UniProtKB/TrEMBL annotation:
This is DnaK suppressor protein. It comes from Limibacillus halophilus. Keywords: Coiled coil, Metal-binding, Zinc, Zinc-finger. A zinc finger (dksA C4-type) spans 88-112. GO terms for molecular function: zinc ion binding. The keyword Transmembrane does not apply.
């Protein structure tokens, strides 16, 4: 491995770890919004409870997306450690550097991601 490539991988690992930390901090700070909604009628009216339930559902969905993103980051860090980073998990071809720059945790090349998106729409 060249020194330049080693530096790039170090920067990439630092970027992924920073994203990881940010997502974990967001998860901790939003924990309260995902807790069960108290249904005490003396404290909260019907519409307020519905709003609270909707906000709770949105917070849970956001937490699920963060969890998925954390798993993608963990997998990308594993691929870096294994020397498999930058290759599509579906076809094995190299992922475009521009795509990796936008989302360093992406596991698929643009062609395979498009196929997967099309498969999910049908």
């Amino acid at each position: 491995m060249t020194e330049s490539l080693g530096r790039q991988l170090e920067q990439l690992v630092a970027r992924l770890r920073a994203q990881q930390e940010e997502l974990r901090n967001l998860d901790v700070s939003s924990q309260e919004s995902r807790e069960p909604v108290e249904l005490d009628q003396s404290r909260v009216g019907r519409l307020s409870r519905m709003d609270a339930l909707q906000q709770q559902a949105m917070a849970q969905a956001t937490a699920n997306r963060r969890s998925i993103e954390l798993r993608k980051i963990d997998a990308a860090l594993d691929r870096i450690a294994d020397g498999d980073y930058g290759y599509c998990l579906r076809c094995g071809e190299g992922i475009a550097p521009e795509r990796l720059d936008l989302d360093p945790a992406t596991p698929l090349c643009i062609d395979c991601a498009s196929i997967r998106r099309d498969d999910n729409q049908h």
